[in-house]
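Hi there,

I know you've been waiting on this one. I reran it after we fixed the sequence typo, so this is the corrected version. Both the input and the resulting structure follow.
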Amino acid sequence: MRILATNLSRLARVLPLALVLGMVAGACTDTESVFVDRPPFDQPSDQTNNYLGYFTVDPTVPPEETKITSCGNCHATFQSGWSTTGHYDAWATLQGSGHAQDFCEPCHTISGRGSSTPPPGGYTTTEDSRYVDVQCESCHGSGWDHVNAPTTTQPYASIAVDTSTTNGCDACHQDTHH
């Protein structure tokens, strides 16, 4: 009986602390998108078909080095998830492969290929490094309309992505090299 009373006494002391710690730990989880306030996106040139590409965080550092997409300015949770994928380093992977060809570039950059929103733009029309890697707009299409009216225009991949073998993901992702 004495052992039972001792154990109950310990439990009575530890239980409130365990409940408080559990509530604190539970409050640390967040499954919602986190929106971050940053300066406005970079204005795209007329040659890009309104693709936004990487955002210039610091004018002294090229945007392809910071790898913050214009979309990631607001959609930080998606930016974080994307940074763990092969799409994040698609350009470096191509360049380091030892067999990069000009015809590979549209798939490893924002170009209009992969998105069903023609005509091409981004890297294929400017060769600007802000459009390297497979960024959000590679599949979702130009983010221009969305950044100008975020609640009206939402470029969901299920609407804009082209999965055909002609211009879409399957053109690359059906072979053994991907």
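Quick highlight: The two ends are 67 Å apart (CA to CA).

Best,
R. S.
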